[in-house]
Design a protein that fits this description.
The protein is mainly alpha-helical. Helices cover 72% and strands 0% of the residues. The longest helix has 16 residues. It is elongated. The N and C termini lie far apart (70 Å).
Length: 230
Amino acid sequence: IAATGLKTHEDYKALYRRAICYFYLEEFQLALNDLNLFIPEFNSIPQPYIMRALIYRSLNESRKQISDLNVALSLPAQEDLSKLFRWRAAALMSLNSYDSAAQDIRNSMRADADAEGYAYLGFIQFNQDKYDSALRSINSAIEVDYTYLPGYLYATSFCLQKSDYNQALMYSNLGLLVDDQNPDLLFYKGVALIELNREDDACRYLNKAFYLGNDDAGDYLSQYCYPTEN
């Protein structure tokens, strides 16, 4: 499609469809070229801005993602905007803009305060050094859906990073009630037990975590469970 030949609505529809094809072929610059021709002619609909933001996400261009998502969120939409708010929150977090990211998560939860939203909020609050608030948000996620495994993973990780090992053990135990084969929770529990000087118990969980695919457990096993003599 030659740019100078774009005259009718059908021409531009074909251009947009080609941009989508280029995107799926990972020909991102070609897709951007087509969208940059399409958007000025159809700048009152959100879909092309969302498509361009998808390309910028693939290119790790956070600021450009946010710019297009800002426009998409400002335009009339026929669908739920919560996914766009969470998408923009993730891009904002990559730029350490945690206050704005937290507001986007709250906006995404206006219609549905789900477990994922609370977990996202907890992750943001932890990165804002709001440990107690982060755990409260994670607890809300678990209350909404006790089977939501990322909540237990986030909480256990937060507690370990803050050297709150008894709390880490509690959250890992709760998570393992949901999935007793989760290698990351088994690893986290093993680490907490090591720090609580319960090495015999720790080694059992670290062994299982390593067997199920958590490579980080290998270092702990070497250091605490199977030390080599010099």
